[in-house]
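Structure ticket #2291
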Amino acid sequence: MHLRNLICIIWVLLVGTTTGLHAALNIEIYGGGASKIPIALAPFAAEAQLPERVSAIVAADLERSGLFKLVDTFGVSPHELDQVNYTDWQNRNAAALVIGSISAQPDGRLDVRFRLLDVAKRIQLAGFSSIVTTDQLRALSHRITDVIYETLTGEPGFFSSRIAFVRKQGDQYALQISDYDGLNARSLIEYSEPIISPAWSPDGSKIAYVSFEKKKPVVYVQTLATRERKAVANFKGSNSAPTWSPDGRKLAVVLSQQGGSQIYLINADGSGLQRLSQSSSIDTEPTFSPDGRWIIFTSDRGGSPQIYRMPVSGENTGRAERLTFEGDYNVSPRVSPDGKMLVYIRRNAGRFNVAVQDIATRQAQILTDSRFDESPSFSPNNRMILYASEINRHGILSLVSVDGQVKQRLSPDMGNIREPAWGPLPGKR
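Resolution: structure written out below.
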């Protein structure tokens, strides 16, 4: 949640793959502006009769990553190994080829088979088959992309991950969960009062968020599988900005129960309240470092909103160290899963843009040039940043690569989208 949002709240209240195969294609990956892997995706057999085409979803995923160049198949559609003319694909400058098929089973489910082939070496690099329902095709397509991505880059993909965001339509607010690309969205809760600050638990099973349904900000934790929820921070004053510890046992929250907005720790069930920050300023927007040692947060203790960090435990608990020094307004910090980068919003010539900073060197780069961006968060593999961007006072989901070379809008027709948060990879602990 932005510092300006917190100030508004106070005002209202007061008033199967292997990584070694990357070398097989002999292509180094530096980012969206460097060499891209040329890959051909032949339409899967029998997919044209389905509501969504698997090959089209996979192609969109790969393009969105910025690391792949799609090679035109010109209507050539091999589905089995004996149908592949490797010389033809070499002449088209394809380094890799994806083929596959879909067949209906007697019970109505679908048998989906795919293969990833190295064109130069004329070998299969990866592949699998899976029997799914029609409703599971999109998830399976993202899984196929994950296999392709990891096999060819040596890094895990992010395509099977999910995102959360707040969608506003008229006077209704909905906390929604979707695929990483903003599609397949479904509502977790809907209210006529604002919902803000969704935060994923480390294992992806729960989401913490702030709801105003009780006419004041209260922090809830909701289990996705059962939709069961609990108010974990409903203290006097404002309760806001929840974030999970890496082990999922605690939450950092911002409370104003003692007069000023300060950062506290609580257990995930709401017990064990412990104050962390000790200042007369506004301390807000906490997030944990991946190792759990630090809380990174926004504070105006230096006269303008900047980003600081403080240790979670030890004799220096509560003692803050400033991390941002460029610009007079830096807010909404999030740390990359590998702990090496910091993303935040910087005011830049009257605009509010996504910036990324190397934590070790403190070198920073502004990645976007739109008028108003908010709520940046990293993909689980550190490669991409999700954020909301405002166009004509209308919030949309957007992606930018960490090098700024790849920029995409995900949701031009989804309604007014705010406060997105990227979830973990499936099965992560």
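Closing remark: The first helix runs from residue 3 to 14.
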